[in-house]
Design brief:
Helices cover about 85% and strands about 0% of the residues. It has one domain (about 1-100, about 105-115). The protein has helices spanning about 1-20, 20-45, 45-65, 70-95, 100-115. The chain is elongated, with a radius of gyration of 23 Å. The chain has five helices and no strands. The protein starts with a helix and ends with a helix. This is ABC transporter permease. Keywords: Membrane, Transmembrane, Transmembrane helix.
């Protein structure tokens, strides 16, 4: 039943991530504007260029803040990552039973070394 829940959450998070690919692209472009504005603001010497690059950075920041579906897409990608890690952790713990057999313990230590 736990695997069913992980699969269901993974499918829902995957669909949300795919639906939000466009807003994620817009968020990335906004982040590029913010990065360029800050980068060139720090490099420029004239006050007119500093004002221009500050305006570019502020516009990029405002478009990034207003792009809420992009943030939802990022959250769904993070959720997919944690679901995937939980799935892999469950597979490893279920595959090797705990016994006092030295050969089983060797296999467990060998698997831990190969991670």
């Amino acid at each position: 039943m736990k695997k069913f829940g992980l699969v269901t959450l993974g499918i829902i998070a995957g669909i949300v991530a795919l639906v939000n690919l466009g807003p994620l692209l817009g968020l990335g472009i906004s982040a590029l504007f913010v990065f360029a504005g800050v980068h060139f603001y720090l490099k420029s010497d004239s006050s007119l260029l500093k004002i221009f690059w500050a305006i570019v950075g502020i516009i990029g920041l405002l478009t990034a803040i207003s792009n809420i579906p992009g943030f939802v897409g990022i959250l769904s990608i993070v959720a997919l990552y944690f679901i995937w890690k939980k799935w892999k952790k469950d597979d490893i713990s279920l595959s090797i039973p705990k016994t006092d057999d030295p050969f089983v313990n060797f296999e467990k230590q060998w698997n831990e070394l190969n991670k």
